[in-house]
Amino acid sequence: MSDFNSTAGRRELRGALNTSRRLLLGVAVFSAFVNILMLTGPLFMLQVYDRVLASNSEATLVALFGLISALFLFMGLLDHARARVLARAGARFQDLLDKRVFDAVLRRAVAPSERSRPQTGLRDLETIQRVLSSPAPFALFDMPWTPVFIFIIFYFHWMLGTLAVAGGALLIAIAFFNEWASRKPMAESQRASAQSEAFSESLRREGETVQALGMRGAALGKWRKFRELALATSVHASDSTGGYATASKTLRFFLQSAMLALGAWLAIQQKLTPGMMIAGSILMGRALAPVEQAIAQWSNVQRARDGWNNLSELLAKTPPQQPRTELPPPKGRVDVQNVSVVAPGERAPTLRGVNFTVEAGRALGVIGASASGKSTLARALVNIWKPAHGVIRLDGAALDQFEDDVLGGYMGYLPQDVSLFEATVAENIARLSDQVDPEAVVTAAKRAGAHDMILRLPNGYDTPAGPSGGRLSGGQRQRIALARALYKDPAVLVLDEPNSNLDAQGEGALVNAIVEAKARGRTVIIMAHRPSAIAACDYLLMLEAGQPRAFGPKDEVLRQTTQNYQQLAQGKAGRVQGAPAVAGPAKPADLHLAASKPANPKSAAGAPKQHEAPAVAASKEEG
Fold it and tell me: Percent of the chain having pLDDT more than 70?
């Protein structure tokens, strides 16, 4: 992570922290009074040893004791008040960034590499909040008073002051050594813990597979290795920080005894009063307390610092979206213009040179073998993955001209891997809206052919559905997800393998949903393997290795593709028999229907117009 990359994120974090500057100023004022009142104890000792004992005055002792009791009570109230104010400053910091950080986590989660590792954004934010609300910042507010206490010790005697300065220097050296020695072990501990957590989470998600394949023993063994590594690195990090914390505490106890010994010697030499001897020891303990406190809290501070750096990087990589001019609701025309897509975390494009146009009220089927780029195109169409080259337009406006939530309202998306949220079926269909529209939910379910199926669930639309659908079958989850895509009748439907888990009845409901959506003037784009999914499509786009190979009216694409494959098969048969090949592998131009003449005059008027090779545009008329 470079400083350049995280500069914007650091600026955003500092801005959130600056909103609590009045609270922090209040903590500083309270700290000033608390540290001034810390002189109560030394001054009391001076008066007791040098005045009360010398005069044997009980009245003076009672008066002094009453005074310091009131002062200590006031100091305790101020100390409690600054702790409460600091806790609220930390809470305000977290409250300001909670939504922003979670939004950044969700936006980063579209990258496959990010989904495979645990997201620590919110945990990092909570770590910073806990440190802000802990005693750790008190060391920062109390440390400016250390020179004041040392100056008073020098006032008693220069030798006492020199001892206090030497002790402080030793404690500061221990703090720097603690930072140097614990940095690597702490990083290793956090990395090992993250690996252990990610592996255990993957086992939890795939619990059925682990059980069915008898992998529990092997899984537990591998998990145990991760845990042992995490535990070992944690112990090593604890040893590093704990050793220096113990050293600082031991040194402070020794310094207090050394201060008493030196003070006693000076008192014997008549260069110091007994009261100054005791007061000097107390003052030195108070002067060095912030340093010792910083060392004791160093592991927490270090975790907060790492969390600050992680959040800076996260926020810098996902800047807040700027408000955009609200555009009128689209009718559904989709233009894909020379689009190439590079999957997040990858270098080579998984989709190259795709061009087509689908008018509202038409359906396009995208076919191709596995890893041909169908799901990549689906993600690009709904603006999950941004094109590395080219542009995708909705009614002439580039997708990035819409705010994400606004664009999402115009899109109905059914991903290949269906998952439901921790909510009821109705809330899942309503896309987790705060205000569920029951009529719109039921309408979407009926259009998806899922209404009767949902009514048969234990609690109907109020049945809880977990992340993987709970007790729901794969087909039930897919039909509920289709209803979610159809919720409030979006202008464009992008369905990625929508029938992968459906039975014959479900496939029939899917075809009906597509036909009805077209009748309402909605655009439908389907990524399909099975022929039944493209039954209601007007046009087909064939992808091969991330590139378009054919596009045009459905029947012509299927007929032309079949002919090309037959020619390819005949060519292979001829080579096996020793005869020359009849036809080699079909070239993109051979499969590109719109670039060739229509099969008959009737189809000439309806053939899609070609934008540019190798892809084409689907027109309103059907061939």
Answer: 87
